[in-house]
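Hey, sorry to bother you again with one of my protein questions. A protein chain has come my way and I'm curious about its shape. I'm sending you its amino acid sequence along with the backbone structure tokens. I owe you a coffee for this, so here goes:
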Amino acid sequence: MSMSGEARFGGVDSVISVDEVARQAQAIAREVGIDQLDALVGGKPCLVIEDLHAGYGQMEILHGFNLRVGRGQSLCLIGPNGAGKSTVLHSIFGFTRIFSGTISAERDGRMVDVTRMASNDKLRSAGIAYILQDKSVFPGMTVEENLWMGAYLMEDPADARRAAERVFDKYPRLAARRKHLAKVLSGGERRLLEISRALVMDPQVLLVDEPSIGLEPRFIDAVFEILDDLQRKEGKTIIMVEQNAKKGLEFADIGYVLVSGSLALAGKARELLDDPDVGRLFLGG
């Protein structure tokens, strides 16, 4: 649900400001303990955030934020605009200033502190990849060249080409367009290319920022089917921010509601879908 200046839910005449959504969301917030987050994982987590304070420049956006997600699980972050959802992804991948707190990821069977690790090292060593919002492909390059760009950390160009071929084997639609410039692709094909480019390095954790943004409805289901395949069949862990909160929670195993840089609610995604307050504020009903 996009809420740039106002939010609509219920009837067409029901319009409230983003600030009012945030205020009402704050009113339904419940204390979320670490034990609750651990229980949602149901086992050993593969990515952990502990008491994170992070932001940009001197501005702190996240205030004591905690997160747990297990290998092969999916987590969807929802909340009003400005709640800090994308900042969580940015912080995991190294795009923010970390004031305090830690981020840990599983590597070779043990948890490693990756809080201040460079983004390249997080991809290469910790298997964490970031899939940007729309318009991150290189339009003047071919589909094939875009995939090679995803392998920029590989020292041997032959390895990059082999990795690209594995992606083409997986997605024949891209293979059929390998020599086409990216700018001629449909919106759904561009999103597939963005996802595929991140897969070239065979990451274990995918940070997915607004997978449905800018897509026609007929492409949205296809994108979520691809993400579901990556999770269910390949065991990828997915942490997602999705402006269509209903779609995101229908996809995910776990849901977090963020308000003003803090965790307001956490639960199984299907439980949040059935929560009347969540539905009233974020699901259009």
